[in-house]
Q: What sequence folds into this?
């Protein structure tokens, strides 16, 4: 009887694991930046029943005065801020602002050239993990619900043009910050992904990209999607083309959202097993695993759209 109950719980967990959300304000260039952090927090809190292990979001389209925004996570009881700054400056970066809260470091720097050398030296620094490097975006993620993360990181003060978010119910990999979403596409600035589902050809594709010289910071299959898309975009493909190609190249069940420096998009696999609903006006488009999340940001009555199998769409600022 106990085994039967455990199996039922596993099936329920798989069925409802994780929730994703995204939002874009289309007219920020004329109307100014929007409270993306506040909106995503409301959306992700509405989805808390889908996962309370961790919550994270990408805030994109920020008006940063510096060239790059770095978000780093450090292991406990390891003082790395000084060595991190030294290594960035040794590679030609100029630190403009720095802040540290518990295990989290946020830096803004001025730097000309390819960001990969700095990313490499940080990647090889013991006790440090890069959550994101962006020109106009940053990833904030932590354990707990959206309200928990907001209290720690003041998400409601963060503005931008668009963003994506995720609540996680861990079904395979560990419950920790490292395996929380969103996942940044190392070392490509401003490309991140949130994902609901599972890739069955993850190990094969990861090996392929590692042979090409790409690095992975985690064992989570969702990180592969980010690297896959970044590689496509770096070769000149449009965001729409990259998403459409992913429908053939990625195997498994997936609904994922991607954020870039100037766009947002989604892709659903051929089985359409993982839910997604969309509401859109002339001003805003928002998407989430459940309609309740959309109702938290739209006060007016709108028709919902449900993407079907093998479907993608993108929006650009």
A:
């Amino acid at each position: 009887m106990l085994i039967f109950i455990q199996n039922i719980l596993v099936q329920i967990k798989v069925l409802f694991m994780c929730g994703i959300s995204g939002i874009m304000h289309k007219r920020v260039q004329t109307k100014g930046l929007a409270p993306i952090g506040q909106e995503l927090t409301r959306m992700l809190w509405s989805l808390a029943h889908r996962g309370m292990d961790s919550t994270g979001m990408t805030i994109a389209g920020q008006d940063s005065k510096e060239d790059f925004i770095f978000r780093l996570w450090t292991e406990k009881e390891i003082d790395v801020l000084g060595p991190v700054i030294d290594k960035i400056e040794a590679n030609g970066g100029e630190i403009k602002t720095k802040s540290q809260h518990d295990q989290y470091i946020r830096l803004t720097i001025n730097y000309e050239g390819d960001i990969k050398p700095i990313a490499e030296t940080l990647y090889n620094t013991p006790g440090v993990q890069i959550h994101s490097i962006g020109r106009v975006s940053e990833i904030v993620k932590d354990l707990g619900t959206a309200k928990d993360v907001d209290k720690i990181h003041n998400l409601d003060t963060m503005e931008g043009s668009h963003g994506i978010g995720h609540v996680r119910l861990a079904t395979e990999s560990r419950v920790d910050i490292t395996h929380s979403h969103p996942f940044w596409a190392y070392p490509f600035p401003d490309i991140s992904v949130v994902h609901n589902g599972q890739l069955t050809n993850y190990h094969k594709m990861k090996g392929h990209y590692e042979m090409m010289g790409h690095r992975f910071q985690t064992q989570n299959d969702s990180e592969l999607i980010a690297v896959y898309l970044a590689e496509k975009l770096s070769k000149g493909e449009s965001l729409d083309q990259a998403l459409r190609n992913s429908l053939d190249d990625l195997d498994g069940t997936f609904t994922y959202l991607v954020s870039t420096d100037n766009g947002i998009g989604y892709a659903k696999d051929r089985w359409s097993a993982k839910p997604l609903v969309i509401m859109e006006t002339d001003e805003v488009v928002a998407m989430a695993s459940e309609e309740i999340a959309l109702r938290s940001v739209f006060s007016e009555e709108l028709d919902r759209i449900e993407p079907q199998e093998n479907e993608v769409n993108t929006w650009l600022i």
In short: The domain at 2-58+145-316 is CATH 3.60.20.10 (Glutamine Phosphoribosylpyrophosphate, subunit 1, domain 1). The first helix runs from residue 2 to 16.
